[in-house]
Specification:
The chain is mostly beta strands and 370 residues long. It has two domains: 54 residues, no CATH class; 230 residues, Chondroitinase Ac, Chain A, domain 3 (Sandwich), CATH 2.60.220. The chain contains no helices and 22 strands. Strands 6-7-10-9-8-11-12-15-16-22-18-19 form a twelve-stranded antiparallel beta sheet, with no helix packed on it. Strands 13-14-17-21-20 form a five-stranded antiparallel beta sheet, with no helix packed on it. Strands 3-4-5 form a three-stranded antiparallel beta sheet, with no helix packed on it. A hairpin with a 5-residue loop joins strand 8 and strand 9.
């Protein structure tokens, strides 16, 4: 089975009455359910291993498994990386839709420091290869007596020399196009597996846009003769598609290496050309140099002292109550003297100049306004 983008577990080849065991990736929660085929089954997970979060682990290397198909595509060789000596581990292979499987105990190699084993199912005469879908599970306990659970789905195919071929991952999100001149060996039948399993050692600062996929050729062949095209459909939103990039895991340097990636905006597909087999995943692109966030230095405002303006207050000096008495003296009427035969002459009014009496002057205060 595999988990789709909505979070549901999809089981292929399941039948009514089959028992399904589910264990969370951190091995804390689990449960078992008898399923009904063709309908949605609901399983409530319970805490089965609460001590795992408090486990004292001394192992810091990522845990992952290598899958190598046998030269005749009738067996699988396993190599488990990242587990210290002293663990107790077993592997199980189940062929989807067929009552065929195999189990094996994994033994620790002191030379490579890995756990190794081979899965060799008993195949009937009419089914002489592992071509098709299958599931692999590795279970057991590590040196600290803590549970280990690694599982994944796998597509197994047989390649033909001189033919162009296309192989799809179990979830349908990855597709590998191999050209007619893509194989080094002239062997008529060359096994190839594409396995989907949980991510490990996720790149720092990158968002995961797909599961991790392992691509392996049979025998000791580790590369293609000509570039093959690998495409991945994102399982997450594509709002930042321009930053998506396909990476390959470098097992020697223990780091993810970016590959030149093309983005098909119309079909929402990322693609790259590969020569080597190994582990691949789609992530958001990681910048070698992060763009620094500008630092704004606050410039303090100058100290402003506000002096309130003084509004002058006019102090009114009350005017004294003054009574002015004026005596009006009418001017004397002009004197007219009539004489016979004489010219009538008007004597002009005499202009009187008032005499200033300082004792009767009135002084008013002057109000000055600024």
């Amino acid at each position: 089975g595999y988990t789709d983008r909505t979070g549901q577990i999809v089981l292929r080849g399941a039948r009514t009455g089959d028992r399904v065991s589910v264990l969370s990736r951190d091995t804390v929660y689990g449960g078992t359910l008898t399923i009904n085929a063709g309908v949605t089954n609901t399983l409530a997970l319970v805490m089965t291993n609460p001590q795992v979060q408090a486990a004292q682990r001394t192992e810091t290397s990522p845990r992952y498994v290598r899958i190598f198909p046998g030269s005749r595509n009738r067996s699988l060789d396993l190599q488990l990386v990242g587990v210290s000596a002293g663990a107790s581990l077993g592997a199980e292979l189940t062929l989807t839709g067929r009552e065929i499987g195999a189990t094996a105990e994994l033994a620790h190699s002191t030379i490579s420091g890995e756990y190794r084993g081979s899965l060799v199912p008993s195949l009937p005469a009419e089914l002489n290869t592992l071509v098709g879908l299958s599931q692999i599970r590795i279970t057991g306990t590590d040196v600290n007596d803590q549970p280990i659970y690694l599982a994944g789905s796998m597509t197994n195919e047989t390649l033909r020399y001189g033919l162009s071929q296309s192989i799809v991952s179990p979830d349908g999100a990855l597709r590998l196009f191999i050209p007619s001149n893509g194989l080094l060996s002239e062997q008529d039948q060359l096994p190839l597996v594409i396995m989907e399993h949980p991510l490990f050692n996720t790149p720092n600062g990158a968002n995961t846009k797909s599961p991790m996929y392992q691509v392996r050729l049979g025998g000791s062949i580790a590369r293609f003769a000509a570039p093959s095209v690998l495409t991945i459909v994102p399982t997450d939103d594509v709002s930042n598609a321009e930053h998506m990039q396909i990476y390959r895991f470098d097992e020697t340097a223990q780091t993810w290496v970016p590959l030149d990636t093309n983005w098909d905006a119309e079909n929402l597909i990322a693609s790259t050309a590969i020569l080597q087999t190994g582990y691949f995943g789609l992530f958001t692109r990681m910048s070698d140099t992060a763009t620094p966030i500008p630092t704004f230095t606050a410039t303090p405002l100058p100290s402003i002292t506000i002096t309130p303006s003084i509004t002058p207050t006019a102090t009114s000096t009350p005017n004294p109550h003054v009574t002015i008495t004026a005596t009006v003296t009418p001017p004397p009427a002009p004197s007219l003297t009539a004489q016979p035969g004489a010219t009538l002459t008007q004597t002009p009014e005499a202009t009187s100049t008032p005499t200033r009496n300082p004792n009767k002057d009135i002084h008013l205060p002057i109000i000055k306004r600024d």
